[in-house]
Batch of 2 targets.
Target 1
Amino acid sequence: MNKAFTLPELFISLLILSLSLVFLVTFSNSYLSILNDIRKRYLGLNVAQAGLEYAIALRNKQIENNQNPWSGVFSSGSYCLSFNTTTKRINIFSSTQPCPSEIPGYSRLLFYKDFENPNNNNLNNARAIKVISESYFGKDKIRLDIVLTKWHPIQR
Amino acid sequence: MASNTKIKGFTLIESMAVLFLFTVAIVLSSQTYNNLVNSSVLSQNLQLAFDNFRFGAEKIWNEIKNGSNFIVSQNSIEFLDRNCNKVQFYLNQNNNIIFNINNNETPLFDSELVKFNSFEIFYDQPSGNSLIDPYFKYSNKIFLIKYSVILQAKTLNIPLEIYQVVAPSNSAFINNPCQ
């Protein structure tokens, strides 16, 4: 008597076939998904870098004016920095929540603290400040930091 | 002597059913394979376009970071680079950014991969004096560059709008280190 395929055998073979098809479809979609993630993270990186650039510019402006380099950030904490294209000035204000950035869907928050003495909350006399810039997008965030001295490297 | 052993073959219906299932499987597999190849080519092209944009934008960022003597208009920026060469970036009529160094012009981006809709530069105004205007300065402290581009991947065009911020290194005290 010739034995035909049993139901479990057929079921298993169909399952394997379906799984391989699903795997191929998922694999093809993951290419574009990865690329989209790269794009999102690149934008997030730019938003975080922009925060550091604002902090550098603000420090340079104050040094040039012979004023305290830590303009508007006299105590350690979190701040929002942005550039107003109408007034052509950098805005800074204290905030505990991230503020919208130049790119919709991306927000940013900067943290200032004394680099030499992290427990010192009064930044007036700090010689160097650590600035941390964080950008937030969806569930992800990117964090960059820099140490700013109270003098400019090319100061004469 | 006649044999009473009956050799049983496939019936027509069985053969048809097998052929049908086989055809369906082949069609599904080839469609999936086609999609896989297409998305691979598409993502490779997009990656190329994205990298091309990224490298060009980083070139602009680096040059401005180390530049001095800035002369800025809305979609053009001219300055001296770290070696005191005269450098200019501007948007031309072919929707590409031109990198001009000592009057030698080079397109910065591959026109087949990146097409510019706009290239805008925002900057702080070096005016006023130290007593009444806290923005008194000798040189620009900040540049905000807005890129609005289309990444071209043959079958798919993806718009990208991105802002880049640069605080030039030579922006305190001296505006002309090349003198």
Target 2
Amino acid sequence: MLRLYVEEKMLSITTFVIVSVIKIVIALAVLLTAVAYTVWLERKLVGRIQNRWGPQRVGPFGLLQPLADGAKFIFKEDLTPPYVYKPLYIAAPILSLVLALTSISLVPIGNWVTVRGVRTPLEITDVNIGLLIILGITSLSVYGVALAGWSSNSKYSLLGSLRASAQMVSYEIALGVSLVGVLIMSGSLNLREIVDMQGGHMAGFIPRWNIFRGQIVAFFVYLAAAFAETNRVPFDLPEAETELVAGYHTEYSSMKFAMFFMAEYANMITAASIATLLFLGGWHGPLGGPWWLQAILPVFWFALKVFGFIFLYIWIRGTLPRFRYDQLMAFGWKFLFPIAVANVLVTSLIVALQK
Amino acid sequence: MDPVATPYFFYGLSAVAVLSAVGVIMRRNPVHSAIALIFTLLSLAGLYLMLYAPFVAGVQIILYVGGIVVLFLFVIMLINIERMQREYQFNKQWLVGLLAAAALGALFVAVYVKGQSIFPQHAVRFPEQLNTQQVGKMLYVDYLLPFEIASLLLLVAIVGAVVMAKKRI
């Protein structure tokens, strides 16, 4: 860690700012494209699961569908219902989207690279408590939902946002505790160090990913809690359309609705990235070939693992029905949370005995 | 990179903290108060960061901003705001309030005057990556008993809340 600190210190402030701006622009472009094509993938896959075609009219395989959707969102009339509390009504979707996009800035997608003599990590910034900051940002994103529901001044919105905030606060605990096992094993909150700990192989061929080193229970707890945190099926109670129209974004239209929509998918990508970093070994994977291939392969492995996770998200959406609300709360508090705590106890016992 | 423009950050964050704290008690609408409280807590997290305590800052955001104020807001959202706004903002206990404020003010003045001898001359700077370990050591080694007592108190509060909320347990 001290080594990284010294290396970054060598950059002058001007280079640092320029490099950061370049990285921010690239990260935003990649993330927003990924969000758009996750939506496309979801429509396509859920279509196939339900024996339909999914989008196929716009472009080959419907590949231009996200562009058409975007244009449609922009040109739709932006309705603001009467009696809403305007400042918060406008701020809520912006807050959701900004927080969802910010959290990706701490996700390392590869090792350090040197471009024209400037050494920089493959993420916007490398901080000591990266994981805590990401958890903090995602825990702030509940405000977008809560304030949207309250400021809309509508029953459905309010009920949806109450459900959402209760659900997100409850599952955040199981989510946080499920990560503690990994933190005990790696002894760091820095995402880069956590990934570095998972390099190499056990017994010759099994990668030393945390999921293969006893954290498999924690992985499944994280999986369930992350689904609930991102309000996805089977935990999408906040927007259960049979009961609540569309939940907290009932009163939103046009680009404001699109912001909630994009925030949801960006949050999915962040959740998938954290799972990849903490449990699936981050950018580690088989390397080989010429130097340029070796430079690209880590990023490719990272993207592949994130893609696998998102595929799972969509697959489950096409498969499982929705929970009932009391079942949801009971599942979070009486099942996931005790398992996560037991995992922490067992992991810390084993780590203590090994020392 | 060395820290840049620290005084500006300090005064900026402090100003936000103080102004939004005033907002918490002065706003008539309780939702506005809760939002002002969020800003106070966030700027406090920024101040912790400036004190080289990143772990404390992160926990401040996750627990207070992401947890406790959400629960405040949760309750406030169910209140009838229009009736709340007509109610009188302050209760009539100005004498007690005055005494408490005077005591706190005297404490601040005393710390300001005697601060030179009470606190270390220079800011104690642990390397920031050790902050998490230092906090853990403090809690689980040096102050284990107070820490356990605090967690017991919290447990009692939780059980009490459940007993009060549930008619049949």
